[in-house]
């Protein structure tokens, strides 16, 4: 990646951490997971990883065929 990509990624990370710990620190907490630091960041990461692996599994199950698919007469 280019240097400006890394700089942009670092700025976005810093803004996210600042919002998580400073801006949203006094946000009214209604649920137990609101007390867990970085819960929504981790939840989003786990969700993205799950989407990737589930879609790969579904692709292998329904889309991909064996190499001799057309020769199997």
TL;DR of this structure?
The protein is an all-alpha fold and 73 residues long.
Written overview of the protein:
- The model has no long low-confidence stretch (mean pLDDT 86).
- The protein has helices at residues 3-23, 39-63.
- It is built from two helices and no strands.
- The chain has two domains: 1-28; 31-65.
- By secondary structure, it is mainly α.
- The longest helix has 25 residues, at 39-63.
- The radius of gyration is 21 Å and the shape is elongated.
Cα shape: elongated
Helix proportion range: 55-70%
Strand content: under 5%
Q: Give the H and E element order.
A: HH
Total count of helical runs of at least 4 residues: 2
Measured between the Cα atoms of the first and last residue, the distance is 47 Å
Count of the domains: 2
**Computed CA radius of gyration, to the nearest angstrom:** 21 Å
Mean pLDDT: 86
The SS-based structural class is mainly alpha
Main β sheet profile: none
Helix-strand blueprint:
Elements: H1 3-23, H2 39-63
Q: Key terms for this structure?
A:
73 residues, mainly alpha, 2 helices, elongated
